[in-house]
Amino acid sequence: MVSGPGHAALPHPLPGAIGLSHLSAYDWEAADGVCGGSPHLHLVCTEAYVVTGGRGAVQTLSPDGYRDIPLEAGSIAWFTPGTVHRMVQGGDLRITVLMQNSGLPEAGDAVFTFPPEVLADPDRYAAAAALPPGTGPETATAARRRRDLAVEGYLGLREALVNGDNGPYLEFQRAAARLVRDKVPTWRKLWREGALATAERTGAQLDALAAGVPAHLGEATAYEAAPTRLGGFGMCGRRDEYALPGTTLPNHGE
Q: Can you give the pTM of this predicted structure?
């Protein structure tokens, strides 16, 4: 919930129209012996990890190759659209996630590194990516199965990239773009009402200051919120999220 006057009409309660959630990295062991989350990429959103406890790493695949970036309390890592990332558990890893363009990831701006034959079939991809509602054993089993399938595809991409062959990685990016193409009109609307509107509002405030009539300062107030869902199954780990207007939307698929 959000407390404060007029909160129902407030379009963007967090600075910069960002998304916000908290993650505790999965401790499930994958086929390569590594414990962690489901590798994936975002198509238009930059994502940042702010490490609040524990240790681990984020493995990334990008045009500059494969990287294994250590994570520990106080460290920050961020990755731009198209970067495949996999959160790795090293011991009680806890992260606050800041996501550009709030609402877009929840509207589908994330594609798992499933094997090529799954990516080539939108219906098969959707079935593999979906989770049952809730946070019980059935959902946990499905989340782990989804993670394992993403790791299967990821390991092939990583091996090829390490060996100097970026073809599979580039084809994965193209396949991801094909999967989300029909979602772009919805994303554009969310962007216009979110991040773009926030930037334009700042421009109007600067104009008001320059004109000496800062009427917007008369609307000053404060807000507060608490997580509205705890322990959901996200892509990288157990996820606490906020159902704030214009911010992170509840992702019922996770």
A: 0.90
